[in-house]
């Protein structure tokens, strides 16, 4: 893995009687997002978090805090942190594959967090053999291990030169879709309405390219911070006009007509290069904000 990345977990990957040393690296992170502190408006100072007793309102220091499970309104079973720690299963540092299943059988609603899975120097042959065999067989692997103090199910699938290991939500953690969809109307769409919808889909087909997705909220926060630093105000955003067609068929005809005549092509297409430029501007904005924050720090003022 590239220098600067620290493995989140190291252990062994076992399939059958074969095992090889591996490491997991975080594949997705929110560390680059802009974050705020809570500030006292009157003094401009940062606010500290203090735990207080819900009845006496007295502060409770950390050494006097413990865990509790509510069994009734205001009634708790006290559980010491040592008792919680004792329930954590011991880890044998082994990610053991239990089954190989077809890729199509995996419902991504169970996906939790992705990790890059790489081999150590001595385990490359076994790792590559597993990766290539999974590619040829078009399967993914279900494995289990103690990760981050919990027994976790992990989905492993080939990804480029390595593997992706995604921790999985347990069945009890995934809510049933039955209740969410129970009020769905029973409608049968056919004829011109269905044909127009299919036409719109056909004319808007593209390819998945995550580089073209820009985080507009993060960019807006960056612009806000930059404007504050420069002592200027941002223009008020234009009010979004939401269309509310009374006739679905008419709206579909209008959309299909616009797409057919190319009226929707007036805006420039997003490209990976444009997206990278946008990402660069976001990083530059965050960098400017960070430098300004460092310049306002007590240590900097003392040095100057």
TrEMBL record:
Keywords linked to the UniProt accession: DNA damage, DNA recombination, DNA repair, DNA-binding, Plasmid
Gene Ontology biological process terms from the UniProt entry: DNA recombination; double-strand break repair via nonhomologous end joining
Lineage: superkingdom: Bacteria
Keyword Membrane: no
The keyword Lyase appears for this protein: no
Signal peptide positions on this chain: none
Residue ranges of the region described as Disordered: 260-304
Molecular function in Gene Ontology: double-stranded DNA binding
Record-annotated Ku domain positions: 57-186
Biased composition (Low complexity): 285-297
InterPro entries linked to this entry: DNA_bd_Ku70/Ku80 (IPR006164), Prok_Ku (IPR009187), SPOC-like_C_dom_sf (IPR016194)
NCBIfam families to which the protein is assigned, alphabetical: Ku_bact
Annotated function: With LigD forms a non-homologous end joining (NHEJ) DNA repair enzyme, which repairs dsDNA breaks with reduced fidelity. Binds linear dsDNA with 5'- and 3'- overhangs but not closed circular dsDNA nor ssDNA. Recruits and stimulates the ligase activity of LigD.
Family membership: Belongs to the prokaryotic Ku family.
The protein's assembly and partners: Homodimer. Interacts with LigD.
Protein name: Non-homologous end joining protein Ku
Source organism of the structure: Rhizobium leguminosarum bv. trifolii (strain WSM2304)
């Amino acid at each position: 893995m590239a220098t600067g990345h620290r493995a989140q977990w190291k252990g062994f990957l076992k399939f059958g009687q074969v095992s090889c040393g591996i490491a997991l690296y975080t594949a997705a992170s929110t560390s680059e997002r802009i974050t705020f502190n809570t500030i006292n408006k009157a003094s401009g100072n940062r606010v500290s978090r203090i735990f207080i007793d819900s009845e006496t309102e007295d502060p409770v220091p950390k050494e006097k805090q413990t865990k509790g499970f509510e069994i009734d309104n205001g009634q708790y079973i006290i559980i010491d942190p040592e008792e919680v720690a004792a329930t954590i299963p011991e880890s044998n540092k082994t990610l053991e594959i239990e089954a190989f299943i077809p890729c199509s059988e995996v419902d991504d609603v169970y996906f939790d967090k992705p990790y890059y899975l790489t081999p150590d120097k001595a385990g490359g042959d076994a790792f590559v053999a597993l990766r290539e065999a999974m590619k040829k067989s078009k399967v993914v692997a279900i494995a289990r291990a103690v990760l981050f103090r919990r027994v976790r199910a992990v989905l492993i699938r080939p990804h480029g030169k390595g593997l992706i290991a995604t921790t999985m939500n347990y069945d009890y953690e995934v809510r049933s879709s039955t209740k969410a969809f129970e009020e769905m109307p029973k409608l049968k769409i056919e004829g011109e309405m269905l044909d127009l919808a299919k036409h719109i889909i056909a004319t808007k087909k593209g390819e998945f390219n995550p580089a073209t997705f820009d985080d507009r909220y993060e960019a807006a926060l960056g612009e806000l911070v930059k404007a504050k630093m420069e002592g200027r105000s941002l223009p008020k955003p234009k009010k979004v006009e939401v269309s509310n067609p009374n006739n679905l068929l008419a709206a579909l005809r209008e959309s299909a007509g616009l797409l057919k005549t190319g009226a929707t092509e007036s805006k420039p297409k997003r490209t990976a290069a444009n997206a990278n430029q946008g990402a660069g501007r976001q990083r530059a904005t965050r960098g400017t904000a960070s430098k300004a924050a460092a310049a306002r720090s007590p240590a900097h003022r003392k040095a100057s």
